[in-house]
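To close the chapter, one final illustration. This time we ask the reader to focus less on the individual chains and more on the assembly as a whole: which components sit near each other, and how the overall shape emerges from the parts.
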Amino acid sequence: NAGVTQTPKFRVLKTGQSMTLLCAQDMNHEYMYWYRQDPGMGLRLIHYSVGEGTTAKGEVPDGYNVSRLKKQNFLLGLESAAPSQTSVYFCASSYSTGQNSPLHFGNGTRLTVT
Amino acid sequence: GEDVEQSLFLSVREGDSSVINCTYTDSSSTYLYWYKQEPGAGLQLLTYIFSNMDMKQDQRLTVLLNKKDKHLSLRIADTQTGDSAIYFCAESLLYNFNKFYFGSGTKLNVKP
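The assembled structure is written out below.
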């Protein structure tokens, strides 16, 4: 099993450009998440999904949109990139049932906005 | 939101024990997790403890939970240079199992 796969691994954008980050998981997990990681700030939740066709806002959703058209995929979109969105983005997934459902993470996408 | 705090840095010598500490504020935590992040990689689950336990041991790793003080620690025995990484503690909550709150991470530096 590949687990959680993120593409691309690196990207440089100019201010105002748009892009989509793709996350795919092959563990049949219901829940999927997008986090951003910034130095000294840990991980902050951007958006999450509790199942195919559903999405919800996390802690820092502004400037991002998401879609979950298929259970195994969770897309994160930046419509008009800003330098403040320079970060490392992590996708994660987990089971929906059971009390112990740890997050499984992808290897991250490093995004630089100039 | 919930507050999970960790010290930012820890430096130890190879062969010594490392103790990484974490405090949290929400007493309705169910599971508390430790994740390890190596450079350029995602977070890897190391171990976890259920909130009604005080201690859990897994090979070189010992997790201690003090519910009264809302304090969690991770002890790594016989620390190796390969243990150098950032360690995150995280909690999931009783009323929302699939919401996780992370600390800012502790960077462990192991000197040969």
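The first strand of chain B starts at residue 4 and ends at 6. Chain B is about 0% helix and 60% strand. With these observations in hand, you are ready for the problems at the end of the chapter.
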